[in-house]
Amino acid sequence: MANTESICIDTSAFYELLNRTVDYIDEKYNLSKEPKWITSEEVMRMIGITSRTTLQAIKDSPLVRVSIMSKKVYLFDRDSILEFIEKHSIKR
User: Fold this and answer.
1) Which domain holds residue 50?
2) Does the pLDDT of residue 30 top 90, yes or no?
3) Is residue 22 part of a domain?
4) DSSP codes joined into one string, the chain
5) Count of CB atoms within 10 A of residue 13's CB?
């Protein structure tokens, strides 16, 4: 008969371990479902703005990473946009 061992773990600890494992694999193998670079339209939708002037102010912010593809085409780093949103949030 084979010698087996059992490990008992709290349910919440198990799911935390599972989530961390999935995050690690996503990071290591770049399996993120969201694209790293997003268009101006996606940024405007994420932030909830319709003004191109406001988008320009955000683009000029040192907090946001932008890749200039051509004279009129910009791609924004999704993570920097999320950080921008977080930095401008307020606690109530």
Assistant:
1) 37-87
2) no
3) no
4) ----------HHHHHHHHHHHHHHHHHHHT--SS-SEEEHHHHHHHHT---HHHHHHHHHSTTS-EEE-SSS-EEEEHHHHHHHHHHT----
5) 9
Q: Is residue 53 part of a domain?
A: yes
- When comparing pLDDT for 23 and 76, which is higher? 76
Mean pLDDT of the chain: 89
CA–CA dist 59, 51 (Å, integer): 12
- Find where tokens 């999704």 sit: 78
CATH of the domain at 45: 1.10.10
pLDDT, tens digit, 9 for 90 and up, residues 38-69: 999 999 999 999 999 999 999 998 989 999 99
Residue 40 has a CB neighbour count (10 Å cut-off) of 18
